[in-house]
Here is the input.
Amino acid sequence: MLTAFLLGVAVMCAVAAVLTLLILVADATIGRYGTVDIVVNDGEPFAIEGGVSLLSALKERGLFVPSACGGRGSCGLCKLTVQGGGGSVLPTETAWLSRQEIAEGVRLACQIKVRQPLRVFVPEELFNVHRFETEVAAMRDLTHDIKEVVLRLLQPPAMHFRAGQYIQIEVPPYELTDEPVYRAYSISSPPSIEDRVELEIRLVPHGICTTYVHRRLKVGDRLNINGPYGDFTLRETNRDILFVAGGSGMAPIKSILYDMAERGVSRRTRYFFGARTAGDLFLMEEMKALERRLPDFRFIPALSAPEPGTWDGETGLVTEVMSRQVKSVANTEAYLCGSPGLIDACIVILKRMGMPEDLIYYDKFA
Amino acid sequence: MTHAAGWFAIFLSAVFTNNILLTNYLGMCSFLAVSKEVKTATGLGLAVALVMTVTAPINWMVYHWLLVPLGLEYLRFLVFIVVIAAFVQVAEMAIERASERLYAALGIFLPLITVNCAILGVSLFMIIREYTFAAALAYGAGSGVGWALAILAMAGIRQERLSRARVPAGLDGAGIALVIAGIMALAFMGFSGMGRGL
Here is the structure.
């Protein structure tokens, strides 16, 4: 009995060992691509070990291309223009690329395996993207499920960004993940504060990063981030401004508002903020203070399900309150931030009111 | 009946009368997930056909030359699955190296089918039915072709007909696909009369 058992284990181990050896040999022979030259923006070529994805090859060189899914081809953020050597577009990419983008050579960097010399074009602003070592300087609860986290930058010590941009948090391996994952969060502090970034993070049940921040992270902990990314920034025009946000969609708009106050922007500004109950509202004092600092700014919170007797403000979905209050969208541009549902609903209403689609800017929290 | 005719009969019956997908309902997961477009279904179908054709004879050799002499037949489930996984890994690397177009069309589907139960099923059925080596090869190839045929037919129906049909909301997607798979299985039963003639 025992010999039969041992024989079974031995044979199983031997089979696994032989197969592993086979794969290792294959990896070292047919899986080897040698060193490959990559040229970025017609600059000096640099050599990397082939066989890895373009996304990680660039990251090794310190060039951080935004990616929210960590290279699984499921977020579509790591778009780059590849001028040569990328091969044909893979079926895993077509869902993320428009016909025009395919014609222009736009690809997903995470899906391209580097195996021959590549020429890629990386947007200039990504050269400003760095990896930052930070320390958690402060944390506080804004609501029962939203935390404000202040990160002090250690190395490099300052970040230059535009109000409305976002960074990625690098979550180290812990119970919910075996490998580092990256998740994007908008910066809620103004760009004038260069040595720290402030984030507003809502707890998503079973979310890898939000659980880490809410349950694990403490003041004094180290955390790596990279950024800044994104173009959800205030356009320099003289149009009136309409902000609509829900939940942690507050973050980039808060940054933009403080930036406007510091720069003395006097455009007419209305900010509709949606929440369920009075307990889901936060930063009310700060918004009141901004109403005094900015010459023509009004903050209009809207509650969809206020507890009776606790609320004398606007009631209803934020989209309903907005369409009741906004009489005209002439000479107005809109900035929307929040869940995809909120943003899609807003876009429908704003277009119906006559706002051209190219004046509606948004940042979807997917 | 000569040997060759016997192998041909096994091949044909694996394609039609005993189609592994439509009579045994194996490999359903990727069958439902990747049958929305004919182009991607072709890639997956070819990948399954290739892997089945090659892994059935490999597993036959492993079983008859290693497991049977040592009296370890009960290990076949474990051994077959690691053999299939290793083969798929190596095949993916080789295809990627050999041809970029082939990799784009077929290679990227290989990781999806490492643990496809239809592929393990073929290896297990071939043992139960006590096939010879050549018969196992014919059976593996036939099952692969049959699986590819079934997913192509399904993709054709979904892309050409269903995309224009008004499907009730509750049935849309996997629901209607399963109903169609059932009707296809009924249609394939029509072949079973032919099997006896061969």
